[in-house]
Amino acid sequence: MDNFLTLLSWEAEEYAHHDKGKDWFWSVGIVSIGFFALALILQNYLFAIMILIGGFAVALHGSKKPKTVHFAITSRGVAVDNTLYPYDNLKYFWINYDPPHIRDLYLISSKTFQLQITIPLGNADPNEIREHLIKFLEEKEIEESLFDSIARFFRF
């Protein structure tokens, strides 16, 4: 990532972390066991195995702490740690800002397999971020995805 000017940079956790108590893990276990039992009753053994693996993966991911990531708006694109998303590959942006729960920058990519990039703002000033991005990208309102809404509801 050489030969470009950094206009603004900040650090934030890669995702909003919610401390999960024993009740959260018990809930994951009970729901997983319930679906596992249903799969056995329906004699769908592959689904039963997938439920066990999925429940374990959800619990494992839920216990993981997010790492701190470095973000930057540069003259060539938006940088996330060592990955640069060039402006040429981005269509537009939207800042979804509703503290204290929602503080995200959405970038819509023109790439087929990576349509939306969500970047947490942390304590960065959303007005300053907008001021820099508006020079390079079109601003267009983007609704929060259903997946993000559900994840926040379940404190994931």
From TrEMBL:
Keywords: Membrane, Transmembrane, Transmembrane helix. This is DUF5673 domain-containing protein. The chain crosses the membrane at residues 24-57. It comes from the Bacteria.
